[in-house]
Write the structure tokens for this entry.
Amino acid sequence: MRWLLGIFVCVSCVYARHEQYDKSALFNVKVKDVEQINYFNSLDYPLDIWMYATQERDGIVLVPKDYVQLFQDELNSKGIEFVIEVENIKDSLELEDKLRADKARNRAMRSDNDLLVNFDDIYNLTEVNNYLKKIAEAYPDVVTLVNGGKSFEGRDMNYLKISNSKFEDASKPIIFIESLLHAREWVTLPATLYAIEKLVVNVTDQDLIDDFDWIIMPVANPDGYEFSHDGGRFWRKNRRNGLLPGDVCLGVDLNRNFDIFYSLGSSNNVCSDIYHGTSAFSEPETQVIRDILHSDDRIEIFLDIHSFGNLILYGWGSGDLPENAFALHVAGIQMATAIDEVKEDWNLNYRVGNSALVLYPASGTAMDYGLKAGVPLSYTYELPARRNSGSTIFGFLVDPDFIKPSAVQTWEGIKAGAIFLRNTRRNLA
Ligand SMILES: *[C@@H]1O[C@H](CO)[C@@H](O)[C@H](O)[C@H]1NC(C)=O
Ligand SMILES: *[C@@H]1O[C@H](CO)[C@@H](O)[C@H](O)[C@H]1NC(C)=O
Ligand SMILES: [Zn+2]
């Protein structure tokens, strides 16, 4: 009996960090018409919109404890249907911790090649940085570890340059991929780590390293990412402070801070999750990405990896189409098709299109800035969420069993994009 009690006490102390989410409820809102869609998509702080509503898709929103009743009453009064997907999201957070801990226990029994990532867990920032360093040391001819600058709180913005010709072959296009610009989108990290593994450690498509150079930045928002591990799991922005007295709210949405249509489709409310900052490129993290995009005009594909939604999106975020929209669409379709071919039955097909038309208008995004900087094939990926009726591991929460499949599937999309690029260049030459 005492033994049981001991376990119980320890469990609750370990998980105390999720207290801020206790009794927050996850709502699935079944919008019917444009009016309801607009109403849902205009909800602002303190509600946390996980998925904007579209004609085809329900909206998903996390509602803090103190607003659950109010929100329900409001939906009822407007005649909007909804389902409470998760009554208390803290239960889901504890389940995520438990599933991860279970995997870690099993793994401790194995002796893995430490240059191969364990795709049954989400590495934290320290682990990612250690891994990048190890890879660069083990493969000095192919991999260079670059520190692109410091984050707001002074963490290194690390990325890898991967090339079997030392970035000196001017005929090779460069593919630039980053993930975790939004901190809580954990399942995007394995996608970039897997790309590194397939280009360096376990190479099965030699042509991808012969024909392209690669820049891969697994953690584009290191401060936010660290905070999502030890502060608040659903943190999205960076950690800029000093914006409001007493820091009642802080952080800039890095994917609204780039200098493209700046502030037209974002928020000037510091408390908002889409707060765009005090000016375009006010944030050191976006400056580092900007500088990479301008560092070499051979960058021809840029992928900004997010979750969730099963989407491949291209510019402009205003809804206008860029001159090369046709190529963007065709390449996008090929990437999406490649992923759909290997996805699970329960998973949704990817949708491809202009970001404003498929999702919602947004300004200051990395994807749009990539295009502005001259990268012809610039995309936002929205990776799938685990979907399993009855499962509370959903949305930003990670099911360890879905990490590897998600990474492998995304790699199929990346490969298809690279192959599209190679074929079009050859045809044009
Ligand atoms: C990151 O993981 C290491 C173990 O690999 C652990 O010691 C450290 O506390 C973790 N950091 C955070 C912020 O969770
Ligand atoms: C290397 O990759 C292939 C296919 O991508 C996979 O089947 C194989 O298990 C991988 N090997 C290791 C050691 O991970
Ligand atoms: Zn995102």
In short: The radius of gyration is 21 Å. Confidence is low (pLDDT under 50) at residues 1-15.
